[in-house]
Amino acid sequence: MAITDRHATTLALAHALSAAERGLAVIPLSRSKLPALRSPHHGDPHPTALCHGECGRPGHGVYDASTDPRRIRELFAAAPWASGYGIACGLPPHHLIGIDLDTKTGTDASAGLRELALRHLFTIPGTVVVITPSGGRHIWLAGPPDVVIPNSAGRLAPGIDIRGAGGYLVGPGSRTEHGVYSTVPGTA
Fold first, then answer.
1. Annotated domain spans of the chain
2. Residue 52 has pLDDT above 90, yes or no
3. Measured between alpha carbons, how far is 100 from 120 in angstroms, rounded to an integer?
4. How many CA atoms lie within 13 A of 18 on its CB side?
5. Which pTM does this prediction carry?
6. Which of 80, 85, 94, 126 would bridge 16 by S-S if both were Cys, CB 3.0 to 4.6 A apart?
7. 18 by DSSP, 3-state: which?
């Protein structure tokens, strides 16, 4: 039996509210993993490209992210097609940094991360790990509060992307076109 879109939205909202209770700012996502709300400036003759939500209208992606349950419910109400949620990276109190280990590139991103750890003498601490529908993994790390970690794709090694300030991770429990994101048992 297929899950209806309304049911998927209800589940996504419940997961998003649970994440917000733990201090993680969230936004609704579509099945394509993109922010569910379109920019309010889309199609404007004089677009406000630098608006990060100052206009007060929803649709600014990660800049709409909130831990306020009332605001989260408003965002999901404005996007009844949402089937997932994104967790904004780089924000207090956790300053979340995501290491995205892809499997699509044909390389072993997990082995690449282990090699980087050995070469630079660091250890990946025990933390939350989320399995993606494609078999990849998102490793969640708490970042330093006084350093801005930028987003990158493949810069550290093939198949390793970093999600930092201004980026987001697809939250566990989110349903996308390719399947459901879930935490590795024992890591959450």
1. 5-92, 96-163
2. no
3. 19
4. 13
5. 0.90
6. 85
7. helix
